[in-house]
Amino acid sequence: MNSIHLICLGVLDLTASRKFYQALGFNEPASEHADVIAFFNNFGTKLELFPYEALLADIGLDAAENPMPTTFNGVTYAYNTKSVAEADRVFQRALANGATLVKPLTWGDWGGYSGYFKELNGYYWEVAYSKDWQFDANDMLIIQ
């Protein structure tokens, strides 16, 4: 197993979450089940939004014993950019569409430019840029 085809985020409000990710530029193809699930095409993976309680039911977990986390759960998602301007643009678009600022974009001791925001459901996203990064023909970040 060496592939991730779907990353599923359990969401509290599918409509609001769909609008947030569309505003960030995620591409959602037409879906006959758009009222109950959302899929966004990316390079190499898809981002899926699915109502949190329906996700619990699909896994077989009790909703009362597994409330939506309200604190950091140890997982972040990252959007790596090709320029400082792109990082600034994506970060500001997220904040303008309801994301909460966690850590402003700053130059770090690792030599790159990054910051964090929390989206509508509490998921943490990093937006980052490094002059040393390269991307392949499929726009995937090359890590050596």
From TrEMBL:
User: Which InterPro entries does this entry report, sorted A to Z?
Assistant: Glyas_Bleomycin-R_OHBP_Dase, Glyas_Fos-R_dOase_dom, VOC_core
Q: Which PANTHER family match?
A: BLR2520 PROTEIN (PTHR36503)
Tell me which EC number(s) this protein carries: 4.4.1.5
| The entry's keywords | Lyase
Q: Does the keyword Lyase apply?
A: yes
List the signal peptide residues: none
Q: What is this protein called?
A: Glyoxalase/Bleomycin resistance /Dioxygenase superfamily protein
Q: Which GO terms describe its molecular function?
A: dioxygenase activity; lactoylglutathione lyase activity
The yes or no answer to whether the keyword Lyase is present is: yes
Domain VOC as annotated: residue spans: 3-130
